[in-house]
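=== Structure Prediction Worksheet ===
Name of assembly: unnamed complex
Input type: mixed (protein and possibly other molecules)
Chain count: two
Listed entries:
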Amino acid sequence: MGISKKDINHTKINQAALDFKKGDIQSFNYLFSYFKKAIYRFCLRILGDEASAQDAFQETFIRVYERISTFNGGNFESWLFITARNTCINFIRKRKNTQAITELDYGFAPKNYLKIGMKEYIELQLAKLPLSLREAVVLRDMEDFSYKEIAEILDIDLSLAKVRVHRARLKLKETLEPLMRELNETA
Amino acid sequence: MKQHKLIFRYLDGEITREEDNLLRDMINQDSELKNDFQSFVEIDYEIQKANDDIAYPENFFNSVEKSIVSRMQEDAYLSNNKKNRKVVFFQYSIAASILIFFALLLNIDHFGNQFTKLNKVYTANQNSYMMNNQITNSEQSKINKISAHNQIQSIVSVKETNTNSNIQKGIDNTEKNNIDFSSLTQNEKTSSNELLNEPNSSISESNHEISVVQPSNIKNSPGQDLSLNNNNNNRNNKEYDNVQKVSLTNDYTNLLSGSKYSPNFNTNFSKVHLSVLELNSFLGNDFVCFGVNKSTHLINSFTQSVGASIDNDSKIGLETGYMNFSISQDKYVTINEGPLSGSTIKIENSDNNGSILIRTSGVSLAEQNLFWAGVFYERNFLNYNNFTLSSRLSIGASDIGFVSSLKFVSKYSISKAIDILIGADAKMFTGGATFSPANSNVSSTISLIYGMRISL
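=== Predicted Assembly ===
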């Protein structure tokens, strides 16, 4: 089961983050086990392949440890995802040297799809979204962040965060709707 | 578009009851919107469900977690070491402060010696003062003598006037009886008696001369007045001294009364001892290192000091400095306890949830700065024109332990206030083992030093 935002006890997490800041290893263990899957999913969906996602995941938590002293006691989850996003963007920038820009604009599709079901197709279409829309919809629909948190993580206005999420949903509907209808008809 | 906004508010769980009713009415009236709504809901459901189907690399997660925990433990270990070093630094600082305090006390004692010297001078002056009083008394007796002699002279004159008149003996006796001999010495009395009783021996009737000692000749007439002469000799010998001693006596009196020399200790301290202040700055380049490695920095040490002369050739003062060097630092790794099966490690007596921090065989070089402060004693041992050779011994405490330094410095004076310096500095310090148990506890460097000195 993935983490659910409704279950998150923000107070407990932030307290653990402050303890982690003081060097408490148990607090780090708690935070790591709490967020590891969400961060990995986020990295995977932003970067599109497992190897890059794992690299970005490791880099994210190392950065978190190295920069925990700059955490000022606010929303640790947002702060963690900001770090993950920045790490992923750095990975994408490194790739730009070897990849065509047009390909980057539509993300990186997983290569080894032998059987494409609905889940894989969603991931495929998600990966084809522009990065700005992809990260917005991943944070909203897959990680259950509020628009305010999305705006904070993406460092954009609240209204722009909403616009990006809505555009991403419309695009996904355009690409996924035919398959959805086909599946519904066969069912 | 408004319909889509309502659908998105529904998907986000932000739709109000009125909006919900409105959306339902619109869906019931528009079949295309109904299809769109169904697609959005299904896609949203599939997207959320997609999270559950992801295969997570748990082993990879564990390795990342352990590596970061290991790093945290290593950093905590080094941080504790750093804290311990700070504690040691403060301990040594306190010890250095105590040393400085005692050094100041020694100088107070030195000042006390000066005070004792002044006391001795005062005692001598007291003696001289008494001598002066004796001399003054002698002078008074001399004046009495002169007065007596004047009386004698006047008597003699009377006698001379009446020589040819054959003054009766009774009159002479009467005159003689009127003279006050009480203040005369035995010689004078004798002399006076001789004068009075035996006029022929000292008064020449032919030329009416009388051998009366004149006041101006009293001092320089040996045999005339032995005691007076002795007093005069004493006075002549001590005359210069007495002037000085009386002056010193006055000074000492002033000292006691606080008019010239203030009884305030600090004022006297600075007047008596710390006459010249000097500021020194040295830069250093290591050329030999023992126990540590030479740093890659261009300048390896910087020393600054302020000192004061305690005599012509010696100085004491405070010295601070920093030095950098390269040390071999140990590498640490955390071994975590695995599941108790197969070839895993069982860790006992561990306080860290089944993990232990151990030192590996590998080392890495790390630049290290060392700040220190202490006291120094400097002594000149050769002066030749503008050149001076001196040695300086310093002891102090650093943030990691004890530091001592021996410098040999040649100084060339380019003006009254500014000297340029060049020399060698041998430092010995503890703390190398703090960074790595493999290092020696005592390290040493020999450096070329150069700098300048400003005298205030």
